[in-house]
Amino acid sequence: MGANSSSISELPENEYLKKLSGAEPISENDPFWNQLLSFSFTTPTNR
């Protein structure tokens, strides 16, 4: 999730999904949110 892609077979081991769906509350200031919602795009180059 976030900056990394996941396949369906990897979802049960995904630490972000475990934390998001876990019983422990996640603070609004937790860096988890920045990692979960970060995206990386490769800009196209024309040569």
Task: Give the structural class.
Answer: mainly alpha
Report the portion of residues in β strands: under 5%
Overall mean pLDDT: 81
- Count of strand segments: 0
What distance lies between the first and last C-alpha atoms, to the nearest angstrom?
Answer: 32 Å
State the order of secondary-structure elements, H for helix, E for strand.
HH
Spans of at least 5 consecutive residues whose pLDDT stays below 50 are none
Main pleated-sheet profile: none
Helix content: 25-40%
Tell me which oligomeric state these chains represent: single chain
Overall number of domains: 1
Based on Cα principal axes, name the global outline: flat
Total helical segments:
2
- Radius of gyration, in angstroms, nearest whole number: 14 Å
Summarize the structure.
The protein has helices at residues 15-21, 32-36.
Question: Can you walk through the features of this model?
Answer:
With 47 residues, this protein is mainly α. The chain has one domain (1-47). The chain contains 2 helices and no strands. The longest helix has 7 residues, at 15-21. The chain is flat.
Identify the notable features of this structure and list them briefly.
single chain; 47 residues
